[in-house]
Design brief:
The structure holds two protein chains of two kinds. Helix content of chain A is 69%, strand content 2%. By secondary structure, chain A is an all-alpha fold. Chain A has a two-stranded antiparallel sheet with strand order 1-2. In chain A, strand 1 and strand 2 form a beta hairpin. Chain A is globular, with a radius of gyration of 29 Å. The model of chain B has no long low-confidence stretch (mean pLDDT 87). Chain B is built from three helices and one strand, in the order H-H-E-H. Chain B has one domain. Chain B starts with 5 loop residues before the first helix and ends with a helix. By secondary structure, chain B is mostly helical. The chains are: A mainly alpha, B mainly alpha. At the A-B interface, helix 10, helix 15, helix 19, strand 3 and helix 20 of A face helix 1, helix 2, strand 1 and helix 3 of B.
Amino acid sequence: MIEWIHPGIVILLGAFLIPVIRNEKVKKAYFLLLPIIGLIILILTSMGVFGIIPPYPDALHKWRIPFLHYTLELGRIDKLSMIFAYVYVIAAFCMNIFALRVKKDWEHVAAMIYVGSSLGAVFARDLFTLYFFLEIMSFSATFLVWFRGTKTAMGAGFRYLFWHLFSGVCVLAGAIIHVQTTGSIEFVHFPWGLGWDYFGYYLILLGFLINSACTPFHSWLSDAYSEASVTGAIYMTAYTTKTGIYCLIRGFSGVEIVMFMGAISAVFALFLAVLENDGRRLCSYHIISQLGYMVCGVGIGTHMAVNGAASHALCHIIYNALLYMGASTVLSVAGTSKFSETGGLYKYMPLSWALYMVGGFSISGFPLFNGFVSKCMTIEAAELIHQPIVYLLLEGATVGTFLHTGLKLPWNIWFQGRKEPPADIKAKLKESRINTPINMLVGMGILAFLCIFIGVYPYILYGMLPHPVEFIPFTPTRVFSILQLFLFTFPAFWLLRALVRGMPTYTVDSDWFGRILGSALILFCERQLMAFGAFIDRNVMRMAVHFRFLIPKTQPVVEDPLDKAFHERLPALLNFEKTHDKIKQFKLRELSYNLVYIIFAMLLLLLYILFMVVMK
Amino acid sequence: MMKITWNVLFKIYYILMAVSVLIGLLMLHFHMLHYHFPFQWIPAFFAIFGFFGCALLILIAKGMGHWLMKGEDYYEKR
């Protein structure tokens, strides 16, 4: 039997060859070849070249690495991991075409490492391997943000990294607790319940929920994706969050609280999207909203719902990359994707608009587009378990999705009631109907074809899902209901279109707590807390003076000129004068502070004594 | 032949909306629809839900905007 080849490792290591290749054409060809190699390996795996799925352990022999007392297993091949892997490499191919003209080699490297490590995470059988690949993903994606090169991108990259390091640490801590209690590092479906026994699983769930941008942990997504480099953002739309969904399906399907969090997330993001002025940020809120559907499906946990979540993740990667590409073409051609600065672009970029609209109809769930065949499964699953609130939230999110991606964004960018774009944008455009680079249109075209193909013939998708599918998407009830829903959404939009016109504003999200309260905390530490510390230091020194008599007077003093010079300069180095002024302000309350200090010290002493007694 | 203008398109759209409500009522009458919740059986439920859902979404969000919408340099200023 032939040994299995890990497609993720191939792409990850292959990425480092990109900067080495000198010839421009060869480099581009190699860049496109990487995901194709991944796809070929996956097709061979499906064909049974490496053994029947799930393959016999022999084929995965080399991918079991001894580590401490455990074995790291890099290969888990079943239907769930295969379906994610397939869509990852296909999407990577289209994205590579889209990014073909980018001149920065290292941006390509970061993107390919990102794709490779997400394949690694999907195929990971144990928690440590999963953690390892999740971390590589976080770092490589951070570089994709930083490659934009602006100051705001630097900040957004750091915030992205902090969120993901936090989620990674949560997963690691949970994994360690899991290993301590069960003795196994395998990534399985975790038990769920209330109480301290499940604390480790709560941590892992928190880590996965942050990765899948579930409300209220969603703010990193709109923040980082909208600041990332033009093509880097396209990669980011697909991998981090969908790997989060994959992990949730594996570990936490059927957890009720996840269902409600997902349904709320699906709607909440839409409210913020109404206020949004930037095309890419608006699309980011739609990622959050669509992730809400998947998280909700995972929470419902029935076979149909899990199938719905997996298939929606798959379709979402395709249509959302398309949507983001649509907004990004405007950014790269016109230099901005803000609604307040665009409008009237239709005459110059009609093809981008048409391809974008395919994505817009898909995400809204229009019949014959791929969003319809996957979204309906989750909604139907909510109906079947009799959850009217969840059903209404999800159906309401459908209305909002159509409003934004199908109506608001295209109207604001390509029309806005203008025949010509604003003068500064018009100066950047050629007098041609095709202003978008051809490679971008080709990338979008392939994705648009996939959107329609899966929408018209969903059975190719259903055949790949983890559970057997007994679901017929095109019933009269469903098709009629959704068409009527959209038919009546448009007049409401048209009446209120003045309200959704872009305004040059910034919408504050839940990251306000981190950014404003966090910086306030740091300011507090820098000013008040430091001043208080200096004040205490000074008083301790003052008290120490009273104990001068303890020092024998006859002790010879050795004068070290260097030491003396240092001590003379020390107050200036530590800037004592400045803090001294602050301390003066406290002068009146000095005595009470002293008392508090002494009482605090005595309390500590008491606690210490008590502790010693108890320990004995 | 009639020239296609925005007015004509809007008129066609109104007719489509009316037709969809009529078809919906007929389908309800002849038991061609299968719903799970009682509220879905309200005549033209999805039309009402689509129109008012969209309007409410915009209006509530605009209300939230009073607190959430800031200047473009909100974070840089601080």
